[in-house]
Amino acid sequence: MKNLLPVLSLLFCSFLIAQKDFEKTELAILPGSELIINGSTNVNNFHCRFDIDLISEARKVNFTMEDSCIWVKDLVLRLDTSGFDCRNKRMNEDFQDLLMFDTYPEIHISIDKIQIISEQYARAFIKVHLAGQNNFYELPVKTERNRYEGKLKLNIRDFGLEPPKKALGLIQVDEEIEIAFNLIVSGL
C-alpha cells in the first residue's frame, strides 16, 4: 500500500505530460563516479562497488521541464549484477545468488522525474526493477554542478528476496540494504 501513492501520482502525471514536447540530450556517466551497495550482517558490513565503466556509454534522453520538475523518458540504468565487486570472491558469489543472477542478471533503475528543490538539492522519483519485481521510491539528491549524490535504503524482502544465512545460521544478512551513488554526469 505504501508504494501505491507514488505509482498513482506517476501514472497521472505521465498522462498529463504525454502531450508535451520533449527535448533531447545526450548523457554519459563519467569516470570518478561511484555506485555502491552497502549491507550488513550480524557479524560484519559489506560494500559491493559497481564497475561504472559498464554504464558509462552515452545515451540519448528525452526530457521536458514543467515548473520545478524535469520529466524524463527512457532513462534506465541497466546494472549487470556481475558488475558488482564485494572484494571477496565468495561474497561476490553470495551477492549474485541473493540477487538471483541466473534468472535476473540485471537490475534496472528508471529515473522518471526530478523535482528541483534548490541549487543544491533535488528529489528523484525512480523505479527499481530487481528480481522480477518493481518498486517505486522518492529520494533526496545533493547536486553540485554535474555531480549527483544520494542514498536509497530499501528492504530486499520488498522484492521477494530472502536474506541469506551462512554458517548454519550463525551469520545472518540484514534485510535492509543501501544503494549509495555519487555520479558525475555530462550533458546536463
TrEMBL record:
Q: Which residues form the signal peptide?
A: 1-18
Q: Which SUPFAM superfamilies match?
A: YceI-like
The record's listing under Pfam families reads: YceI
Is Signal there in the keyword field? yes
Please provide the record's keywords in A-Z order. Signal
Per UniProt, residues of the Lipid/polyisoprenoid-binding YceI-like domain are: 75-183
Keyword Signal in annotation: yes
Membrane-crossing segments per the record: none
Q: Can you say what this protein is called?
A: YceI family protein
